[in-house]
């Protein structure tokens, strides 16, 4: 028997279930998504479930169950069931589906915290951290940066300086699975009933970190590649595990590309610390490119705002706009963004 409160079940979810026409059936949480079925944690144990026709054909692809979803199912055999309904999602991490401009893919739902995992080697990228952070904050999920492989030689001051524009907006942990004392603070940061999703590139050590947090081998890991010096990708699906006496951890496969599925310019302004400057712009609808009296551009010119941070903001804003607009609107805005690119180049030359 499983105590579903350890997996996050609460009174709010109970109320959502009461609004379903299937409230008399059983509920559970999706622990993993396979090609043809779903692994579900229910009070009775772990089940393999398939989708009922009304779910399979009545929803868009990104609305189909993802890891972390709470669902209602009808058991029909030993450890098997049919998913007949999905409770409304909250705090769902999405990304833009690879190869598309506006389709999105659900990564995990009912997430309280997102561990953005970066390794302190050649894989480290501030720009990638910003990208993950924007999407996480957009869904009202608390971001935490986990820097792994701190046993390697690196310049801590340079790392902290590169992160200073976002560092005070989220906790940062320097960790190494070879040093248990660096893992303990992260363990204490995870509360019972919380759900934490791990996101990052391949080879940064997400699976190894989860094993260290759980103090047992939960996921398989690979040794460092001798040719590239990077860890080999091992996770192949999004999967949920329960920490003993603590929260729920959701591992995800490493991604080469994490496209934004967000169109909230306020989120971008706040994360890149443009908001305070923008308040002093002459025009309320300032695009922070070349308008007269733009306090953001002035901050870049005066050195108060780093050029790299500003350029990263422009890049992600362009991407988020592309995601949210129609093909017709995209064509109209191409000219506007061409102007943004040219102005950014002129600022760089000054």
From TrEMBL:
Note on cofactor: Binds 1 zinc ion per subunit.
UniProt-annotated binding residues for GTP: 148-151, 200-208
Location of this chain's protein in the cell: Cytoplasm
Chief location category: cytoplasm
Residues where Zn(2+) binds: 281, 286, 288, 294
Domain CP-type G: 98-258
Domain EngC GTPase intervals: 109-256
Keyword Hydrolase appears in the UniProt entry: yes
Recorded GO MF terms: GTP binding; GTPase activity; metal ion binding; rRNA binding
Keyword entries, A-Z: Cytoplasm, GTP-binding, Hydrolase, Metal-binding, Nucleotide-binding, Ribosome biogenesis, RNA-binding, rRNA-binding, Zinc
Enzyme Commission (EC) number: 3.6.1.-
InterPro entries in the record: G_CP_dom (IPR030378), NA-bd_OB-fold (IPR012340), P-loop_NTPase (IPR027417), Ribosome_biogen_GTPase_RsgA (IPR004881), RsgA_GTPase_dom (IPR010914)
Single Gene Ontology BP annotation: ribosomal small subunit biogenesis
One GO location term (cellular component): cytoplasm
Needed cofactors: Zn(2+)
UniProt record similarity statement: Belongs to the TRAFAC class YlqF/YawG GTPase family. RsgA subfamily.
Subunit organization: Monomer. Associates with 30S ribosomal subunit, binds 16S rRNA.
Function: One of several proteins that assist in the late maturation steps of the functional core of the 30S ribosomal subunit. Helps release RbfA from mature subunits. May play a role in the assembly of ribosomal proteins into the subunit. Circularly permuted GTPase that catalyzes slow GTP hydrolysis, GTPase activity is stimulated by the 30S ribosomal subunit.
Name of the protein: Small ribosomal subunit biogenesis GTPase RsgA
Organism from which the protein derives: Sphingobacterium olei
